Amino acid sequence: MMQKRTNPGPRAGRMGARRIYEALRDQIMSLVYGTDGLLPSSRALADEMGVARSTVTIAYEQLAAEGFIETRHGARPRVARAVVQRGRTRATSRPSTRKARLSAFGERLRLDPPRWIVPPRGLVANFRYGELSPSDFPVLAWKKAVTAAMARKPERLAYDDPSGSPRLRTALQGYLWRSRSVRCEVDQIVVVNGSQQGLDICARLLLDAGDRFVMEDPGYQMARHTFAATGAVAVPIPVDSDGLQTERLDGIAARLAYVTPSHQYPLGGVMPIGRRHQLLAWARKNDACVIEDDYDSEYRYDTRPIPPLHALEGSDSVIYLGTVSKTLSPTLRIGYLVVPPGLRSLFAAAKQIMDRHTPLIEQEALAAMLESGAYDSHVRRVRRRNAERQQALLDALRRRFGDRIRIEGAAAGLHVVAWFDDLPPKHEDALINAARAKGVGIHPVSALFVGSRTRKSVGLVMGYSALETAQIERGCKLLAQAVAELD
């Protein structure tokens, strides 16, 4: 005879109406069901806990009598919003004095964790980089592709190739060739959950504690955190208007270098061909890998892109990293690595250990968009829209500040850097607070430096891809008012 399912923990058969009532009451007050969410039906909960339905009904009746839930015939009980908002007091347990024993990795992460800051809501304009406008997302094309992917009935639902869907990798091979001159075999491509997972795999496979890695300074902090969590040590190399100052690599031994040569993050420089060859020569001499993060190469506004490192002669030490986070959405978590042939199986094994593979529905949908040309059309459309947004930002900054600011990185990408040359760094926090008080989010360059550099002025990384032109204009006006208050 089949037994009913039971919850883990105390034996469900001994769970009486009182204990069920107390458990549900505590969950309600802890907002497990939100402020007005639905509880399970009495029949479903009784089946889950292995008790009689009448036992759950008694518990629900008591909760309703005390005003914790609202009941209606034929409907699931709902949390009573008023009682939760009026009387909820979170039960706070006394913090344990026991210190968890962590691995070396855990200790390093505890001492130097990346920061997640919840984006503020209700701002007039938030010039935060990396966010996209919902109006740019190709809803119809994506919905069509996802629906088609879900309608296909495979022989069985099973785990798939950890390197990614063969269909998507084939489509990416063609896309990379026509858009970025990257020539590779399909089996060199590994699909990952966004560029961050790609960096994590690189860190795990290429770095040990005590190794050194080259970072652009200023540069992408999440890359630094990822590599440093292995116990490796950052070697910051300054950047200028042409990106990483490769002449400073002489005499430096390191296991890898992380670079953004197509559009240096955050200063926006494009690495010239001479420096690219110099970087590759350094990598060969030191038996090092170069991670080329091509994070927003789709967005160029004034010049043709220089071929990526991966497309140059002698690039067998380059790992190319791409993502759709800047073209479709960062919420999709789809990226890809192009790895040297000798590392393909190793990267696939690392991906399999991490999470088996990236979700297949999204992979198949992206493959369909690439095959049909819908993805390319979408990229062309959002490139035009972001060029308009960038121009609106540049015009607004020049109109409001004139010669007081200096703009860098406007040739490509989804952000620019605005330097306030007459505003000393000591005023940076005051400017951020004054702008926030007016409803404007601004983000300083200073947070992206690794080494100790003496800055002479305040610099702001100003993203615009999530804003409309009216928001950009209004935001710059309010920012000018905030700057005026500091004069």
Explained architecture:
This protein has 487 residues and is of the alpha/beta class. Helices cover 40% and strands 13% of the residues. The strands form four sheets. An eight-stranded mixed beta sheet has the order 4-11-10-9-8-5-6-7, sandwiched between helices. The protein has a three-stranded antiparallel beta sheet with strand order 12-13-15, covered by helices on one side. Helix 8 (194-206) packs parallel to helix 9 and helix 8 (194-206) packs across helix 11.
The largest pleated sheet is described as: 8 strands, mixed
Q: Could you state the oligomeric state of the chains shown?
A: single chain
Tally the beta strands.
15
Which percent range describes the beta-strand content?
5-15%
Sequence stretches where pLDDT stays below 50 over 5 or more residues: 1-13, 89-93
State the order of secondary-structure elements, H for helix, E for strand: HHHEEHHEHHEHEHEEEHEEEHHHEEHEEH
User: How much is the average pLDDT?
Assistant: 91
Shape: globular
**In percent, how helical is the residue content?**
25-40%
Structure class = alpha/beta
Separation of termini?
A: 82 Å
Radius of gyration: 27 Å
Alpha plus pi helix count:
15
In spatial order, strands of the major sheet run 4-11-10-9-8-5-6-7
